[in-house]
Amino acid sequence: EEANGTDSARAPKVTCEERNVSGIQRFTPQILNVSEDLMELLNPNSSDCTLVLFYTPWCRFSANLAPHFNSLPRAFPTLRFLALDASQHSSLSTRFGTVAVPNILLFQGAKPMARFNHTDRTLETLKDFIFNQTGIEAKSDVVVTEEDWEGPLPSVLTKGIDWLLLFSLLFLASFVMYATIRTESIRWLIPGQEHEHQE
């Protein structure tokens, strides 16, 4: 029987070269540290595909996504999965238009090909996204396990001080105070300034 146009599968948008998985014991995402550069890990001369997650450890949406992303390498062992803290790699976030986290990009070689844009971030929606983009089918027996909740991506929020935000707020507050003091219209509020310009 010949399949009609509605039943036939669409051609994948990205043709991925599947990596050799012999010798790999554990399939987990690789988390980039501050000194690692994403562009050095992506091979611009190949057609292998890598799913890259931009996250922050203090974002609850990133924490909710973490166990699902942790399980993806088992579902797609022939693809690579990387994650990077967007607050530590701000130049990359800017370069690839990552204005909010979590943000997932599919790269072919070193070129971004597709962005995951679903609000429902589960293992199933991630599997569907990868299949729709690459045509690679996920292993059907992979589910999110207790081990996926533990790592390597953190599913528990990290409490800490965002020094850049704190510095920005202090700078803004000091600028507003300076501008307020320098404004002629409110000099009369400051004691000793009311007769300064009178002769």
From TrEMBL:
> What GO terms fall under cellular component here?
cilium
Q: Which UniProt keywords apply?
A: Membrane, Transmembrane, Transmembrane helix
An annotated GO BP: cilium assembly
Membrane-crossing residues?
163-181
Q: Which InterPro entries match?
A: Thioredoxin-like_sf, Thioredoxin_domain, TXNDC15
CDD domains per the UniProt record, alphabetical: PDI_a_ERp44_like (cd02999)
Q: Which residues form the Thioredoxin domain?
A: 5-135
Q: Which domain of life is it from?
A: Eukaryota
Spell out the PANTHER family in the cross-references.
Answer: THIOREDOXIN DOMAIN-CONTAINING PROTEIN 15
Q: What is this protein called?
A: Thioredoxin domain-containing protein 15
- Record the organism: Pterocles gutturalis
